[in-house]
Fold:
Amino acid sequence: MSVNDFPYCINHKIHTDRNLPPIHDHDFVEIVYVTDGEAEHIFEGELYHVSAGDVFIINPGEVHTYKLEPGSKLEIVNCLFMPTLFDEVWLRGLGISESMDYFYVHPFLDKSERFHRCLNLRGQDAEEIFSLFQGMSNEFEEKKKGYSTLIRLQLVQLLVQLSRLYQKVKDSTEQVNVKTQERKTLIKRICGYLERHYDQKLSLSILSDLFNISSRHLNRIFKEETGKTVIEFVHQVRITRAKKLLTETDEKIICIAMDVGYDDPAFFTRLFSRKVGCSPGKYREKMNGNAVDDGVAFEEDRLLQSM
Structure:
């Protein structure tokens, strides 16, 4: 960019793997809008994927270039200008200050600030931003009387509009984070309830009424957060409790099945065998290091025969 009385330039470029710029920095500000194609943007030693609709800013002194796959291309609009294009007094005269959420304008009010977030725009947002670039391009090409003033105003409008879009993305992300945290809290509460009331009759219907959430939605988010369905989690809690009772008490298996919430001892024995790899009696024998007594063996034989 040649620096003259009006330190500004805008152009359209097509990059391929054969005409990539060397890794470089510069003393001007560069705003890039990707109109077509995709590439890896090598920025300050890191790689970022960019594609059509992406807009990003490169500040003076920041090192960058692009990396493209053979045969691919990247079409961009390049808006280049010296930071001196904006006078702080002029910006404040427009009503812009640090107290406002004009993220893309703040570096021109405070030279120590840097901002280079990449926005991925689609639909109407992309069209509006592209039209601002196109308007500046037309003014710069035609150079009619007052073009430099109009470009300054259009450039500030672009930066303010980008700040608005960034705030929208930021708010949306924060809202998603809040919802995610609320969901995690809900699942923790449900897990706590199941761990305390594992010996009671439990069902999705009961839980959905208790926590004011549909059964389908409850099971879906529970699986996403824990990796298990609600019923699988209940079985896990009950089997864990049953293993403790088998190891620490002399209760009969039928009684333990009832203690952990199973009305059907045969179902309990079958489930325990599938989850643990051996029958409740064998588990007790293995953990206590004793031979299983005849009473337990008879009881398990009877339960297994009823399956």
Q: What stands out?
A: The longest helix spans residues 147-196.
